[in-house]
């Protein structure tokens, strides 16, 4: 094995990998991988992501480790990028061997993040949404929207998505992309119209501000809210009153308290860690009229699971190239000699 | 400009870059770049590096930003790697545009870290070591040793290096690599012998433990100690008594208090930030018999400077390749459509 070479999955290879396996299968597999890692939550070295904020966005590093494998993701969030023809969120990530510190995989993660975010949302809804949910409102029809729709179809059995975006062009794009995928897709002119008859409401907008995508009177009893877009200090989507009558489920409280919808609430407001529901330690949905909220901000373990999944698929698919990224002289103390000999 | 493509500097290209410019010139340039960035220290977004520790080593992320450019380094430290034929330290790093969050450069940094660490040591010594220093003891003759020797020659005018390592093979490797480079190189059988006549003592050993490479009676008045190897919680090189009679200079106190030699001292023990010396705010060496200690652990700004330097050299050298790392659909909201069209 050439230790200087690190397997690299480019954007092109990631897309080929997804099509080779099939998008639905990838979403189902990712949800299973993430669930398996959430079930061993205490084994992970966890830390809130490390954010560098500017006026226009944020750049974050999201590391974690299970003691055998280390992973981190680089990810940005720049809501104004869209106006400039750029992605709001781009990402790449790395896995490394804890025993040696040597990298094992470098991968694009813009597409992979879109997939893992949707898979995580649907996984959470499996535990929290009303049984037999068939209809989801999808408010915010940007880059993440179709991934959410397909994940909820594949993992939760959702059959209808009701779309709303302040920009009808975004909704039209979403309608077009979701055609022929086994979903009834209903474009709506208002958020109120979108949530009519929906058991699940997903909010996935991108503004970097305290927004009110949902007001209190829009949310009836018994629904599950999948709050994806409020994921940064100063960026929320739900009116505070909704939070006060919801059972709130989060990934990693030290991070969500700063970034999630619950930044609007006192620091001691009770929340439940999703992994504890999955582990059977704390009930998820306990009554039919309960409003459940998955206050999702995205956590490093989800990226770790996704990167490990991609790595596990490289051998069978032959995708990926090798990057000459690690200087590895024959005598490890002779780094300088290696440099000299390259002259 | 193809925004999906990120310039990548491989190990091979980094070595070619160094030889194209010349090692001495690179070391001098890096010291100048790092010095320029230290002089604008308050402009940087600073945080202690984010470490993930295991029994055998540490994996760290080192981010910083000057508000225009963001940079981070991935670096490991695994002292036992050497016995397995692996590098103790490997690294890679990235620059990104703060305005968009899009990456600007991905680069190997195992070699670049060796260069920037040596350049930083020599830069600090320029401010702290006795004027007219000509002789340096170099204790620890591993992968960093030759880089230290050359940086002190190029930047501080050192003419003799006196080498000691517990493994004579490491010293022999170092003697061989430094031949014909304008230095008198003297291998020594003990640390005591190595420091005879030296105005500067560099310790750069790799054990992950509280070691005592220098005891108090070995350090005479007036010397400058360049403490490079103590850079991790539980890993130090100097006897505490040396610290108590030294003027201690550090990079970023919140990080050095945890990782440096001063982890042996109370949290309020006075230290001086090196950038303040360079900015003329606080004196460096103030008397001939003063013992100065640069308690170096390595800080993110040094990597930022080094990465920017590498980036500035890509156009003229034509080195580097382009990596398809960022998914960048024509319509930024149509990430899913891009994925569909790749089918």
Question: How does this structure look, described?
Answer:
With 343 residues, the first copy, chain A, is of the alpha/beta class. Chain A has helices at residues 11-21, 23-38, 110-128, 145-156, 168-178, 191-194, 240-244, 253-259, 274-278, 300-317, 335-341, and strands spanning 5-9, 50-53, 58-65, 69-77, 91-97, 103-108, 135-139, 160-164, 184-187, 200-203, 210-214, 224-227, 236-238, 246-250, 272-273, 291-295, 321-324. In chain A, helix 2 (23-38) crosses helix 10 (300-317).
Shape of chain A: globular
Strand content of chain A: 15-25%
Through-space gap between termini of chain A: 25 Å
Could you tell me the CATH topology label of the largest domain in chain A: Rossmann fold
The largest inter-chain interface, given as chain pair and residues per side, is: A-B, 84 and 84 residues
Please list the strands of the largest sheet of chain A in the order they lie side by side: 9-8-7-10-12-16-14-15
Largest sheet geometry of chain A:
8 strands, parallel
CA-based gyration radius of chain A: 21 Å
CATH architecture type of the largest domain in chain A: 3-Layer(aba) Sandwich
Number of strands of chain A: 17
- Count of the domains of chain A: 2
Low-confidence stretches of chain A: none
List keywords for this structure.
homodimer; 343 residues; alpha/beta; ornithine cyclodeaminase, domain 1; Rossmann fold; 2 domains; 8-stranded parallel β-sheet; 7-stranded mixed β-sheet; 17 strands; globular
């Amino acid at each position: 094995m050439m230790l200087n070479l690190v397997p690299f999955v480019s954007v092109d290879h990631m897309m080929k990998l997804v099509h080779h396996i099939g998008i639905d299968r990838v979403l189902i597999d990712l949800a299973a991988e993430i669930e398996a890692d959430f079930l061993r939550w205490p084994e992970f070295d966890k830390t809130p992501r490390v954010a560098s904020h500017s006026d226009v966005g944020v750049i974050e590093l999201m590391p974690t480790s299970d003691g055998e494998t280390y992973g981190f993701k680089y990810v940005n969030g720049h809501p104004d990028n869209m106006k400039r023809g750029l992605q709001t969120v781009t990402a790449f990530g790395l896995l490394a061997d804890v025993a040696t510190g040597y990298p094992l995989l470098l991968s694009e993660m813009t597409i992979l993040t879109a997939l893992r975010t949707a898979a995580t949302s649907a996984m959470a809804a499996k535990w929290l949404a009303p049984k037999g949910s068939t209809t989801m409102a999808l408010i915010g029809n940007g880059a993440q929207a179709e991934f959410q729709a397909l994940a909820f179809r594949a993992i939760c059995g959702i059959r209808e998505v009701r779309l709303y975006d302040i920009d009808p062009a975004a909704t039209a794009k979403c309608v077009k992309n979701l055609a022929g995928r086994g979903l009834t897709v209903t474009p709506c002119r208002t958020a109120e119209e979108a949530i009519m008859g929906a058991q699940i409401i997903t909010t996935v907008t991108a503004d970097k501000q305290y927004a009110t995508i949902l007001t209190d009177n829009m949310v009836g009893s018994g629904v599950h809210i999948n709050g994806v877009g409020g994921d940064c200090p100063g960026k929320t989507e739900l009116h505070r009153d909704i939070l006060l009558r919801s059972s709130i489920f989060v990934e990693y409280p030290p991070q969500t308290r700063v970034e999630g919808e619950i930044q609007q609430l006192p620091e001691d407001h009770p929340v439940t860690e999703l992994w504890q529901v999955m582990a059977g330690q704390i009930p998820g949905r306990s009554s039919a009229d309960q409003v459940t909220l998955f206050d999702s901000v995205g956590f490093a373990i989800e990226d770790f699971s996704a990167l490990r999944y991609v790595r596990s698929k490289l051998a069978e698919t032959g995708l990926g190239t090798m990057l000459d990224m690690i200087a590895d002289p024959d005598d490890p103390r002779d780094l300088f000699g290696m440099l000299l000999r390259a002259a």
